Amino acid sequence: MVNRKELDPEESPSARFGQWLRAMRDERGWTQDDLAERIGCSGTHISAVETGRRPPTRRFAADVDRAFGTGDRFERQSQAVRHTSLIEGFPQYVDQEARAAEIRLFEVGVVPGLLQTPEYTAAIEEGNVKRGTLTQEQADERVETMVKRQATLARPSSPLIFAVLDEGCIRRSVGTSAVMSAQFEHLLEFAERSNTVLQVAPFSMGARRPFNVPVTILTTPHRSLMSYAESAHRGQFERESTFVLPLLAAYHQLQAEALSQTESVAMIEQVRKGTP
Hints:
The longest helix is centred in the middle third of the chain and has 18 residues, at about 135-155. The protein has helices at about 15-25, 30-40, 45-50, 60-70, 75-80, 90-95, 120-130, 135-155, 165-170, 175-190, 240-255, 260-275, and strands spanning about 100-105, 160-165, 195-200, 215-220, 225-230, 235-240. The chain contains 12 helices and 6 strands. A 6-stranded mixed sheet has the order 3-2-1-4-5-6, sandwiched between helices. It folds into 2 domains: about 15-80, lambda repressor-like DNA-binding domains (434 Repressor (Amino-terminal Domain), Orthogonal Bundle); about 90-115 and about 150-275, Endonuclease Chain A (Endonuclease, Chain A). It starts with 12 loop residues before the first helix and ends with a helix. By secondary structure, the protein is an alpha/beta fold.
C-alpha cells in the first residue's frame, strides 16, 4: 500500500478504466491476487491494467464483469480504451446509434460520417495523418468504424434519418475532384431513400441557425431521447430528457428554416456541376 500509485481518471480512458477497476476491487476487499484468481490471470497483470500500463482486452473486461457482477459495463468501458483513434464518448454513442429508431443530424464543415463515402472519409483522415494528429493505423480504424456504422444502419428495420448539412459541408472540397463527385452522388442517392430526409442550412440563415457545433439526437424504439455533441477532444453523450428536449425543439426550428429537400438537392446538383 505504501507504493500505491494515485490514479487520475481524467488523464485517459485507460486511467479511468484502471481507477474504476481498483475502486470496485477495494469495495469488495479483494487484493489484486484475489481478483486475478477469480478471472484466471496474475496479480501483476491486474496491477498493470489498474495503473494504465497495459490496456484491457475485451476478454479481460468481460471476465471482470463476471467477477464483479456488473453486466457488460467494464466490457463497454474497455471499448473507449481500445479505440484510441476515436474521440472520447464516441464508442458509447455508436452503440446507441445502432439501436436507434430515429436519428437527427446537424453537421458543420464536413459531410457527417453516416453520409460519407469511404474515399471521402479516407481523404479526411489522410490529412490528419499528414498533420501528425493520427497514425496511419488509427486513420484506418476510423475509416473501418465509419463503414461498420453504415452497415449497421442498413438493417431490415432501418431508422429514420433526418440530416441537415450546413452549406459549408457541400462547398468545402475534400480530396480529389473524383472523391467529391462520388460524394455528391452518394448524397443524392441518400436523399432518394424512403427513410431519409436531407436538407441544407444555407449561409443566408445567418444568426437564425440555432447550432454552431455538430449535434445528433437519437430516438430509441421506446421513444426516449438521447443527444450527442462533441468538441475537438471529447464527445458528450446525454440521456437526460431535460437537456435533450430543448435541443430537439431547436432542431425542429433548424429544419423549418433550412432549404426543403427539393431545394437542397438542387443546390447539391449546382455545386457538383460547378455552377453558382
